[in-house]
Write a structure and sequence with these properties.
It contains 13 helices and 17 strands. It has 396 residues and is an alpha/beta fold. The longest helix is centred in the first third of the chain and has 15 residues. The protein is elongated.
Length: 396
Amino acid sequence: MNYKKKTILDADLKGKKVLVRCDFNVPTDADGVITDDSRIVKTLPTIRYLLEQGAAVILCSHKGRPKNGYEEKYSLKVVQQRLSQLLGIPVDLASDVVGPEAQAKAAALQPGQVLLLENVRFVSGETKNNMELAEKYAALAEVFVNDAFGSCHRAHSSTVGVTSFLPAYSGLLVKKELDVMGKAISDPNRPLVLIMGGSKVSDKIGVIDHMLTLADHIIIGGGMSYTFTKAKGGSIGTSLCEEEQLDYCLKLLKKAEEMGVKIHLPVDCVCADHFAADAEPVIFDEGQIPENMMGLDIGPKTRENYAEVIKNAGTVIWNGPMGVFEFPAFAAGTEAVAKAMAESNAVTIVGGGDSAAAVEQMGYSGSITHVSTGGGASLEFFSGAELPGVAALLDA
């Protein structure tokens, strides 16, 4: 995949109307209050740069998965308010996406001003990459900028279709994602360590297969590790297991050995007799879990082993927690990996999703080289797949 793309630093923006696809899909609580505004904050450098260059800025984003047209809880009103505070200037909101109000407000927008369109998923056709809709987006502006890395793996009207009608550049956030992750794949500091966690092997097959040709070490943790344990003949009690992936796990272990890639599996695990925050944690050796117990985290010996591998790495890429980190009693494995990465001298990359949330929550994100804003997109990236939203941008 070519990830050398033209960025807003290459574009002539003075006096231009610029449509920016952002990722403002922020979490909100029951009262509609934003609980984490980091996605908004990470787009600010791009917005500020465009304003400094004398552009009139039109922002668009999705939020949630509305089913049929306008739904109050998915409105971008909360984003408009937070964005106005962060930028220190009023941000106008169009009550539609490409309708009469959006058209009128976009037409009247002056350099130095910011307009936010309503949730792009309120329009049918957006997720089907409808070209008529894409043309309507394009009619609002003269230049398109994609700064929504978290949506780059989806071919939608506001990420891909619109690039058929406007010159398309990457924003500073997408540029950073591609620079850091691109180098980790094309020219990594060695040894390159891939850490894979989360619940399912099947979600990570693409990444593991692709990275097997690039990585020196692969660390496995989380729910998916029990499928490997069972494949090797160990007993896993009531732990998560994908029976249909047992063969794959054995083939992978054999292939890794042939290719000289070291696969690290847990040697012990923290278990409980039921899935709950207040369950009593008990430690067992991996493969010796009693039939009434389930593994919920990697154990202390495994934490030490994994920290040692991370300490000696040149590049570390991590996707997926080591256990049920939402329960404090089963968060030590995920924390050990986060801490080891934060203290390491390696280039460290956290691939979005749950691992990004964990690193943020545990206070290590400031010590990680790069925390990706896209869980699904970073998985696709590291599996070697082409990201449609990136492929559609102008080549550098």
